[in-house]
Amino acid sequence: MKGRFNINPALQKAIFIVAVLLCLSSFVSSPVALVGGFLFVYLFGHPFPDLNSKSVSLLLKVAVVGLGFGMNITQALAAGKDGFLLTVFSILFTLVLGYLIGKKLGMEKRTSHLLSSGTAICGGSAIAAVAPVINATEKDMSVSLGVVFLLNSIALVLFPILGHLFSLDQHQFGLWSAIAIHDTSSVVGAAYSYGEEALRVATTVKLARALWIIPLSFVSLYLFKGKGKSIKIPWFIFLFVVAILVNSYLPIPEVLTNSITTASKSLLVLTLFLIGAGLSIEKIKSAGWKPMILGLSLWVAISVASLFLIVNLY
């Protein structure tokens, strides 16, 4: 993948590796990593484009499971309980609103359903799970993913700023980011930059929210008559739960669990750099204005509605 500056491939790879090492250090924040990945590829190109998406998927799962070793089951259950009603409300609200706006815009049903599903639950993971069930085309998927990834990138940078502006405490911000930001990586990244409690609450609520992929896939199967299609289950979430249980009930040395969670946070920052590296101007342009209006409308609506409920109820 070429950038604006045509540099020697060996130098391109060397600079990319240095950027990766910086992300694994403690010197780069989540928003900087995401924006840095985008700018790097825009300027210099991507030396390993074929490995990017596979690496993002694997690293995110490993990082999330690792974060479980820094959590206690009592705290996790409390956070999950607080987020349950908000999750149910937000999913139903987003799916219904997405259907109505998509119909008003005259969008193809599959594209609007994919975008609504990604906004309602967990961004790219929900889109990837629902797409084969509804027989979505590659174009439907790329358009939906393009819109979701763009809004995720904006949210990662914008939400911590808004959280401080509205004087949200750690618990409130964790809930808000888990409900209003699409993708797990951006949720965890935004919460990580806000504070430890925010990170704990956001990760727990978001992963509990991600399990709704399963019932949504069955509903989508019925609505789009996708006979014979299989349902993808996000198994890594169960490993996250196992990590929490191990940390809560087994006598593991604190130095070991601290090391695991520190390494997981570094992997998360690297994941965000790679996500930024996979977001190009071409992908953004290819989305088109109708999907962009739908995605932005849903994002703003759920962000405002959930913020209002969180500020007044928690």
Structure description:
This protein is mostly helical and 314 residues long. It has one domain (9-313). It is 79% helix and 0% strand. The chain has 15 helices and no strands. The longest helix has 33 residues, at 73-105.
Report the count of strand segments: 0
Query: Helicity, in percent?
Result: over 70%
Radius of gyration: 19 Å
Content of β-strand: under 5%
String of helices and strands: HHHHHHHHHHHHHHH
Low-confidence stretches: none
Largest sheet: none
How many structural domains does the protein architecture include?
1
Q: Calculate the mean pLDDT score and round it.
A: 86
- The separation of the N and C termini measures 47 Å
Tertiary shape: globular
Number of helices: 15
Structural class: mainly alpha
Short description:
This protein is 79% helix and 0% strand. The N and C termini lie far apart (47 Å).
Looking at this protein, list some descriptive labels.
314 residues, single chain, globular, mainly alpha, 0% strand
